[in-house]
Amino acid sequence: MIPEWDRNNVLPPIFPGEKGYSEKRSPYKADLLLFVETFATSQKRIEILSGLLDYRSAFHQLNVMKGFQWLDGSFMDNVEITEERPPNDIDVVTFLHIPNNEAQKEFFANHRHLFIPEETKKRFFCRCLSICTWTAINALGCEMDFLLV
């Protein structure tokens, strides 16, 4: 579940009504449908979400099926109220499991357009802050999910 923006127009660090030590805290785990339903509140946000979906699709086309993404930046805040403007992009940190048939160095070299922040922002409205490989993802068996920070 994703909480509503708080009185400061940001996602609260702890889910409303929960104790400070609760597991219902940032980062909030959300599936794709819930994330889109929650944040597709304007044409500009829908455009950014479409770019994020294209960005994720680019990884799927490379057979990257396991990992998760941290999402942050002004997209996660109610900047339409606090700054009287729409968000420009969404900040994305991707943790991924590289397909078995490719070495890490080769994978990054062959798909540089997915790892350069200026490129990802221009093409996908996603400011790629970093890409991290985590071989333990395979052991967890998780699919591409979102964690909202």
The assigned structural class equals: alpha/beta
Oligomeric form: single chain
* Beta-strand content: 15-25%
Query: Biggest sheet, strands in spatial order?
Result: 1-5-2-3-4
Give the helix proportion (percent range). 25-40%
Quote the average pLDDT.
87
Major pleated sheet? 5 strands, mixed
Total strand segments: 5
Global shape? globular
Radius of gyration, in Å, reads: 16 Å
Order of helices and strands: EHHEHEHHEHE
Span of the ends, CA to CA: 13 Å
In short:
This protein is an alpha/beta fold. It has one domain (28-148).
What does it look like?
- The protein contains six helices and five strands; from the N terminus they run βααβαβααβαβ.
- The protein has one domain (28-148).
- The longest helix is centred in the middle third of the chain and has 19 residues, at 43-61.
- 21% of the residues are buried.
- It has 149 residues and is an alpha/beta fold.
- It has a five-stranded mixed beta sheet with strand order 1-5-2-3-4.
- It has helices at residues 32-39, 43-61, 79-82, 104-110, 117-124, 136-140, and strands at residues 28-30, 67-72, 90-96, 126-133, 145-148.
